[in-house]
């Protein structure tokens, strides 16, 4: 085999390959852009918070928004049940701008249509759906977990004003949002209302707006204001009409009782007592009180707790308990069964220097007054309702020693009064005396006496005629002059009682008048026996007959 003449081979050129192809630029750019977006999203992402609600009604994941001042700052990202299945846990993602506002006193609540005392709210959610409203706090302590309020707050935490605590017992329950009034002008609202089961009383939190918070002082008293108040007591009938807001649900009023100093301004969260009425708030204002027990041996029907204790028309105390203890165990100074009534003398009503004097000073003065004859009486304060009050006066009988205390309480002696009970007793006694008179027998006896008087007068006339005939006879002329004169005077006397004489006429008229009076007394006695109250009430007008219902 022969080889070709030219046997040259091409020589390969060796070149260095590129490390990165241009094809990879696109995914690298995409990766960088994605990382930047992740970083941007992460850096701008706000905090995630946890909300606790009793129910998730109207809440939707990804749709229910969280707002502050009607600006969206986040959305609900997750809804789940609590571990004990009694509540709902909501996760919400907020914007970064909301992070500095999440403090422990921040408030959240669900906005939905509501009809309350203050009016109608949340109507816009009928179209847009419910949302969660956020109110920033001011405590400075950060938090990421909150409890959603059952109702919207009455006032925001940053609103200037004064918050007070009220304790109430045996008072009509009020609602959150009811007004707080000062002289019928609204100055605040009730923020919270809850019942303390341990103390068995209601507790309210009030908010007084600035500048009205300076109206609340240490001597202020708070009382319940109803729409229309009707009071029938020993002081008479009173009707109080409140404002339009209180007509719907009620409210709370406050002021300083007249005649007392305003006192110093109070601090935030100060505690006060809520009274049932303005009258009770004014009466219980006098904290320095001296308790006494009065033992009444008459009926105390109509005497109520809170009835006034007066001294000659001036109130000096209040009835505190009727009765104080079991009536069957009480006896008064005379040994009679009595009803113990606890009353409190409010020495603060005596003068302005009460607080500067010890209680022993006033106790000594009242003990001296009791020894000088001070007694308590039951009197009628209202004829329509039969309400009673206690009147303090002096009987004029001094005591050498004070009565022995009754179950630790000093005794205030009592005296029978002149109230309705006494009038009733006197009417009953009068009826008993009238019944004891036996008017039928008295009337028959009067008629018999009248007939006998007439017969006696007729006999006297006949005897007078006989004496006149005897004196005029010849035989009588022979009698001594003195005897004839005596017979003449006797005849004249008998003529004075004979029929047709003045004495006979007057006696007959008197007997006839007595008979007519006894006849007229019969229906009066019969009426009093049937209706003893006829002495007090008019019986001329018949009782009205109820009309039948219209078809």
Automatic annotation (TrEMBL):
Residues 529-551 are annotated as: Disordered. Residues 46-137, 161-225, 291-394 form the Mce/MlaD domain. It comes from the Bacteria. InterPro entries: Mce/MlaD, PqiA-PqiB_transport. It comes from Craterilacuibacter sinensis. Keywords: Cell inner membrane, Cell membrane, Membrane, Transmembrane, Transmembrane helix. It is found in: Cell inner membrane. One of its GO terms (cellular component) is plasma membrane. Coiled coil: none annotated. The chain crosses the membrane at residues 20-39. This is Intermembrane transport protein PqiB. Pfam families: MlaD.
